[in-house]
Amino acid sequence: MAKFGVGQGMKRKEDQRFLTGQGMYTDDVAVDGLVRAVLVRAPMAHARITGIDTAAAGAAPGVLAVLTGDDLAGRRHRQPALRGPDQGKRRPAGRSAPPTPCWPATASGTSATPWRWWSPKPWSRPATRPSWSSVSYDALPAVSDIESASADGAPLVWDEAPGNLCVDWETGDAGAVKAAFAKAATVTELSLVNNRIVVNSIEPRGAVAEHDPATGAYTLHVSTQGPHGVRDVLCQILGVEASAMRVVSPDVGGGFGMKIFPYREHALVAWAARRVGRPVKWIGERTESFVSDTQGRDHRSTARMALDADGRFLALDGRHQGRSRRLPLALRPGHPDRRRLRHAGRAVHHPGDPRAGALLLHQHPAGRRLPRRRPPGGRLPGRTPGRRMRQGDRHRPRRDPAPQLRAGRRHALTPPRSARPTIPATSPAT
Amino acid sequence: MVVPIGTRSTGQGHETAYSQLITEAFGIDNELVTVIQGDTAAIENGAGTDGSRSLPAGGSALKAAIDVVIEKGKRIAAHALEAAEADIELADGRFTVAGTDRAISLADVARRAEDPAQLPDGMAPGLSASESYKPKASTYPNGSHVCEVEIDPDTGIVRVERYTVVDDFGEVVNPMLLEGQVHGGVAQGIGQALYERCVYDSDAQLVSGSLMDYCLPRADDLPMVGFAMSPTRCATNPLGVKGCGEAGAIGAPPAVINAVLDALAPLGVTAIDMPATPERVWAAIQAARPAAAA
After folding, report:
1. In contact, A313 and A216? CB cutoff 8 Å
2. Inter-chain residue contact A10 with B30, CB threshold 8 Å
3. Could A259 and B29 be called an inter-chain contact, meaning their C-beta atoms sit closer than 8 Å?
4. How far, in Å, CA of B274 to CA of B257, rounded?
5. Is the pLDDT of residue A47 over 90?
6. Number of Cα atoms under 13 Å in the Cβ half of residue B34
7. Burial class (CB within 10 angstroms; exposed 0-12, middle 13-18, buried 19+) of B134
8. Cβ separation of A430 and B42 shorter than 8 Å?
9. Dihedral over Cα of B108, B111, B113, B115: its sign
10. Model confidence over A140-172: pLDDT tens digits?
11. CB-based contact (8 Å) between B12 and chain A?
12. Burial bucket for residue B16 (CB in 10 Å: 0-12, 13-18, 19+)
């Protein structure tokens, strides 16, 4: 028998590549004529764009194009119907989310994510970014969590969804559960906050798009867990057949579920590559990961369990609220809650279990983080030498390193780009 | 041997695990296996890697393709060796007529497969198979986490002193990579339980929007994780494997919080929300103290 069959703790074959700097991540993809896209994200969570002045950014050295939502009019993604559980009552029945524009346009009706973007020359970080003031906004009231989103009179994320309610469902046998609780010897109750987390993959999201005008075909390299899913959504948005949309995910540095979704940026770089006639790369920075990656958890749950005198489970009655996921194109808000409830039902044997779930639409902040504020007269609290900062310390966001420091910090251990292999334009022989 | 597959490793080591399935089935050396992932031009379809589906679903599809290739290989070998198909055995990368030294290598069979003249009548050329697999049911991994913490009552800082996991993931392809995934999941779960807090202000601005403002666990926050397995073969897929990707992150938060509450129980603390930051733990101790003293 050859070595390393099933059941053996073989070291990773991939490590030879990864540990010698030969990993090929999305940011390593090198193609001729590549330009870099930078996304300008809104500094506030909910606003109406009242105007974008592209003149200053367009005139900056090295800027190839400044593209706004107006350029993308009509490129919309049809959201799948918002789903509750497979069985059970739900309200409202089968409502669909409104079509989501890939890129909010100037003076559009509403916008949770007003962005604009531009493409400087390859690899040169812009010395100065266009000032935020070149986009003007009317700030709108925002909601920040389940409590504020579900409060009476809360600002609406979508006008189509009163109460910011996405779906509200229940399932199980309410009568049987009520009867079980009535005869229970013991009832236990638990309230839980499943706190929201930022996924923080080591490799941020990113994409490199090419468009071949001769064939009309796109090639997208993207850091994703599921290239086929990305392809299918992009085909719908860009109006091409699957055969004209090759999606490649090279080595991926962590996904944890966050990178399974098609994201707006994927559609944007593909569309922009066609628009500017050059391959376009976008690589998210860490702060962009915080504000634009889909985040995890964030549920409020209460559960009651009825037990008989021998400690046997009689019934489970659970209520669960969760936030819809943020911002990926293929929004699937019902999914985590449906799965949770289904498994809860199977794990416990009892006569019936009405389980209710409410999924709230939520205003997802797309803004950059707050500007640093210096306390009056004082030095900024922060990290002191030799001491770890711990959660609970008072601290403020650190200013980004100077551009010249940023340029030097990347790829210190990797060979120069010219020495790296390029991804072949055609598929490997299979 | 080339294995294009519709899942996408994001660091779990799929190239290695799928290669081990090939080695197990054909007895060829692991180095001879090339796994291709993440290219829609090379792979017809795939649901990607999400929710611990790669080995249960992708691995099962690979198993189905392996079975087709072995069956076809045996027919070609039987034809070449002028033997009955039922007498052909596959081991160490060679098809052998049972009980004899007459054999043909897998590579030679693959070469013959490309030449219609050397194939049995009616057989299509090529030694390849394309299979997909849609799971009919979930897998049900299960396990137990044991966590021991120490809490400094003056600062509220929680330190995880010992951590032990026992899991049932069914059949295991690579116990080292599996344990590594559990370690990573436990680290994420401890992070959620003790450190990670997403803070939005009343304008819905993300205040914790950088690694200076959002606390991830670091190496010195984490103990060595003891790990053992108590496997029961999974009945819902042909490989008998169960998902392991989420297990560490699912088990750790309740284990850590229960340990924290157990440590604080003598003070009368009965509930604490995640993350149990020093500030929250300290505040819970302070709130409980007057009541305990009374």
Report:
1. no
2. yes
3. no
4. 8
5. no
6. 7
7. exposed
8. yes
9. negative
10. 888 877 888 888 988 877 666 677 776 666 667
11. no
12. buried
B15 touches chain A (CB under 8 A): yes
* B19/A contact by beta carbon, under 8 A: yes
Say which residue the tokens 């509403």 belong to. Answer: A110
CA distances from A45 to A9, A68, A144, B272 (A): 48, 18, 9, 30
Residue in chain B lying closest to A342 (CA) = B138
Instruction: Tell me which chain A residues have a C-beta less than 8 angstroms from the C-beta of B15.
Output: 12-14
Locus of tokens 């493409």:
A119
Residue B81: CB atoms within 10 A of its CB come to 17
Beta bridge partners of A76: A101
Tell me how far the alpha carbon of residue A388 is from its chain's centroid: 30
**Whole-number Cα distances in Å, B218 to A28, B182, B196:** 27, 16, 12
Of the residues B205, B272, B285, the best mutation for testing chain A's interface (the one with the most A CB atoms within 10 Å of its CB) is B205
Residues of A in contact with B202 (CB under 8 A): 144, 148
Residue linked to tokens 């009945």: B235
Contact B9 A10 (CB under 8 A): no
- Smallest CA-to-CA distance from A371 within A411, A398, A336 is with A398
Mean of pLDDT values over B264-273: 95
Contact between B195 and A290 using a beta-carbon 8 Å cutoff: no
Residue B232 CB neighbour total at 10 angstroms: 14
- DSSP per residue, B133-166: ---SS----EEEEEEEEEE-TTT--EEEEEEEEE
Interface contact B250, partner A, CB < 8 A: no
Tens digits of residue pLDDT in B38-91: 999 999 888 888 888 899 999 999 999 999 999 999 999 999 999 999 999 999
CA distance A25 to B261: 43
CB contact under 8 A, B214 and A290: yes
- SS3 at position B64: helix
| B235-238 own/partner pairs: CB under 8 Å, 24+ apart | B236/B56, B236/B135, B236/B136, B236/B137, B236/B138, B236/B139, B236/B140, B237/B56, B237/B57, B237/B59, B237/B60, B237/B133, B237/B135, B237/B139, B238/B60, B238/B63, B238/B64
Helix (H, G, I), strand (E, B) or coil at B168: strand
**pLDDT tens sequence across B94-104:** 999 999 999 99
Query: B48, A229: Cβ pair inside 8 Å?
Result: yes
For residues A168 and A91, is the Cβ–Cβ distance under 8 A? yes
Q: Which residue of B has its CA nearest to A229?
A: B47
Cβ–Cβ < 8 Å for B98, B87: yes
A226, B203: Cβ pair inside 8 Å?
no
